[in-house]
Design goal:
33% helix
Length: 230
């Protein structure tokens, strides 16, 4: 599989924020989010071709028990299921960060961190017309999301750029036809700088208070800025 990076940091997002974790970021993505903050793993994937055994050995060089499989989109990476199984055999806690456009198919996973994309994610049609059509057709797959919800402990994480996005989130949740506890719905401000995140956090936190959703900061931006290996 093509691996963009493997690094030891803390989990910056979601219910496990703050936990020391080893991140395995695969390269390649089936979406093209306008605000993607890892283009080196998505828009123009780069990295090193590694075997499952090599990835596991790299993970084991670090002391953390929590391993995060992320991307790009890790679920399209060849041998991702074999990698997850190998890590499970070694007693690692596995979080899979996915846009939930690919069914889980029984993959080993302790926390499904599902991040379906809102309308705000669509690429500019003037510059990326073909990808805009593909992205819009693929970004929201309720049946696939339900497959994840029914099989694993989960969190639903949405990137919010403006207050109106929260109504879109509520509409998507209704389409799932599942009783999703509000505290498992995480709303995260869109942005790649601490200043933008703080600005959007003010009104987003208030909306979370009103709707009962969980506000999700991005600790890695606060601590390290928007850079690789964090």
């Amino acid at each position: 599989m093509l691996v963009a990076e493997i690094f030891h940091s803390i989990q910056g997002e979601g219910a496990l924020a703050g936990l020391p974790s080893v991140f395995v970021r695969t390269a390649g993505c089936n979406l093209r989010c306008a605000w993607c903050d890892t283009p080196y793993a998505s828009w123009q994937p780069e990295g090193t071709v590694m075997t499952v055994e090599a990835v596991v050995a790299a993970v084991l060089r670090h002391p953390a028990r929590h391993v995060v499989l992320t991307g790009g989109e890790p679920m399209i990476a060849p041998e991702i299921a074999a990698l997850a199984a190998a890590l499970r055999e070694l007693g690692r806690h596995i979080t899979i960060e996915t846009a939930a456009t690919v069914a889980p198919a029984g993959i080993a996973c302790d926390l499904a961190s599902l991040s379906p994309k809102l309308l705000n994610s669509a690429p500019d049609p003037r510059q990326h017309a073909a990808w805009r059509r593909k992205h819009e057709a693929l970004r929201w797959q309720p049946a696939v999301v339900r497959a994840w919800l029914d099989a694993y402990p989960y969190q639903l994480k949405f990137v919010v750029a403006q207050p109106g996005d929260v109504e879109e989130v509520e509409g998507m949740l209704a389409q799932l036809r599942r009783e999703v506890p509000p505290h498992q719905v995480l709303l995260m401000p869109e942005g790649t700088t601490a200043a933008v995140l703080r600005q959007r956090a003010v009104w987003l936190a208030e909306l979370c208070k009103q709707r009962g959703f969980r506000f999700a900061p991005r600790l890695q931006i606060e601590l390290y800025g928007n850079q690789r290996g964090t």
